[in-house]
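Aim 2 progress update. The chain analyzed this quarter is reproduced below.
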Amino acid sequence: MTHVLVLGGTAEARDLAARLEAKGVPLTSSLAGRVSSPRLPVGPVRIGGFGGVAGLVDWIAEHEVGAVVDATHPFAGTMGSHAAQACSQADVPLLRLARPGWRDHPDAGDWTWVDGHDAAREAADALGGTPFVTTGRQTLHHHVTAWADREVLVRLVEPPEEPLPPTWTVLRSRGPFEVTGEAALMRGHGVGVLLTKDSGGSFTAAKLAAARTLGIPVVVVARPPRTDGVAQVGDAAAAADWVLTRS
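Predicted structure tokens:
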């Protein structure tokens, strides 16, 4: 059967790996290695980068990969671009597996949508209040200098890459979260505005409902564009069906 490369690191990627393993499909899941204790999928796993497009093309050829599923995080734009280029060069079919975003959320029309993290900070400044930043540690450099002297609440899975201002409160936690807990957290820290990104799904969506309950405005960083022409599905079941038609 076709050897499938799953570019993973998401719950959808783990779900897909389990489905393919159950069907006896040879696969390798690839993780970027940015999380110290990642949730691992079933089956063979490789951790670390490929060395750019050329490295990915070589890996596909060396391991006789017959199909690639890009199930990386919606904001992993570089890996998505590399996958599209590599699969085109290697003449290997590529599928994008991405959980639906929050554009169709009932409250989406009330949020402030922006195209980047600097714009998110500026929008939060205009709204006022203590920011609650949930956009990940790799985005914090956009805010450190401008918010060096103000209270900021940050939630991270991994520790920050650089020292953060002493006025900031850093919480280390991994979802899923509940609405009641999120509301209590926001009240306890006097949150005035929530900064998030359009990760989609239900895993971290409780904060959105909590913000609505408390009347806290939400600023959302929109997803970056992906390479045109790549087929896309929204769940692991559909991705597994796509793979099985090529096995």
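The chain has a mean pLDDT of 94. The radius of gyration is 19 Å. These observations will guide the mutagenesis experiments scheduled for the next reporting period.
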